[in-house]
Design a protein that fits this description.
Layout (H helix, E strand, L loop, with lengths): L12 H14 L3 E2 L7 E4 L2 E4 L3 H10 L7 E5 L5 H12 L12 H4 L2 H4 L3 H7 L12 E4 L8 H4 L6 E6 L2 H15 L20 H14 L4 E5 H6 L1 H11 L6 H5 L2 H8 L2 H6 L1 H4 L27 H15 L12
Parallel strand pairs: 4-5, 4-6, 6-7
Antiparallel strand pairs: 1-2, 2-3
Length: 328
């Protein structure tokens, strides 16, 4: 490897960091069977090749602020929904959820909350110019986050959301199928798609372990619990982000208004989310399907589900964590 991630120094500008990253990336194990992009193994995870320069840039140059909130997730684990809920909650004073001019009515959640590992490749000042408190997002595993983000001294807080692996698998398959416009799923030389950013169980375990060790630093949410008790989880989210709802807001129904604004049905109905595409040429409507828990049962046979459960249970043995709602 030409340079380890920690050896990339700041102050080089985009060109310097990207050049070093390209040398590093070319030496990493390559996996081309994953649609819609090739993967490279880095730090024990299979990451999208296109995001690796951003990872290096973030580790080299990102400077966290005490009021920063980082939304972390594995792909297809509820990322879009969490972004919408957190953005509406954190910015409710400036943008009341019932207001017709709310940013989420004109822009998609992924435009309102940028990915840390992709935006820094575009511009060094992408996040520096944002007013505090800043809301950012990432699909990176905890071990590959910038050291400043993980440090207690930074004050930066992390919100992580996890989801049943079977729903994640099915959601990813359907997402790539729709995003690439194919009838039977991704077509990449006859190969089958695989999940990026995995292994999934290790991704989840890293954040879960930190949430147990430092609950004031990492909030661990479960998608299934959020679908059942959305408003109470929004209250939990607000308190963790340092902006709890006041008694007056509760009386005025602000938490419920945020839940309504960010519901899948409402977001999916908006013009901005029904048309257009993002910077990676993925259609915006690809991010909205059903938004329910347990839909995997409509796509996986009992035998397939049992096999996946067996693999997951084996990997989680002795960890103390379970994907079953509530955990152990």
């Amino acid at each position: 490897m030409a340079a380890a991630p920690g050896e990339v120094s700041g102050g080089q500008g985009n060109g310097g960091v990207t050049a070093i990253a390209e040398l590093t990336i070319s030496s990493l194990p390559l996996e081309t069977r994953c649609a819609p992009f090739p993967l490279r193994q880095h730090g024990g995870f299979w990451l999208p090749e296109t995001f690796l320069p951003g990872l290096e840039a973030a580790r080299a140059r990102f400077e966290p602020r005490p009021s920063d909130v980082l939304l972390a997730s594995f792909p297809k684990s509820g990322t879009t929904w969490l972004k919408a809920l957190a953005f509406a909650t954190l910015n409710r004073a400036a943008y009341p959820p019932s207001g017709e001019g709310h940013p989420l009515r004109r822009r998609g959640p992924h435009d309102c909350v940028q990915f840390l590992e992709s935006a820094l490749v575009v511009s060094d000042d992408m996040f520096a110019s944002l007013p505090s408190p800043r809301l950012l997002s990432t699909h990176l595993p905890y071990s590959l986050l910038p050291e400043g983000v993980k440090a207690d001294s930074s004050g930066c807080r992390i919100v992580y959301i996890c989801r049943d692996p079977k729903d994640v698998l099915v959601s990813w398959w359907l997402f790539t199928k729709k995003a690439l416009g194919t009838q039977d799923g991704p077509t990449n030389g006859g190969n089958k798609p695989m999940l990026s950013n995995g292994p999934y169980w290790r991704h989840v375990l890293e954040y879960w372990a930190e949430s147990k060790r430092r609950p004031q630093k990492v909030l661990f949410l479960r998608y299934e619990e959020m679908t059942r008790e959305t408003t109470s989880n929004v209250r939990k989210l607000a308190e963790f982000m340092g902006c709890p709802f006041s008694g007056e807001e509760e009386a005025d129904g602000v938490p419920d208004a945020i839940v309504g604004l960010c519901s899948f049905d409402h977001l999916r109905s908006l013009e901005v989310n029904r048309n257009g595409a993002n910077d990676f040429n993925i259609k915006n409507d690809s991010f909205y399907r059903k938004g329910v828990a347990g839909d995997w049962a409509n796509y996986l046979s009992p035998e397939m589900a049992a096999q996946l459960d067996l693999v997951i249970d084996d990997e989680l043995r002795s960890s103390g964590f379970s994907f079953a709602t509530g955990g152990r």
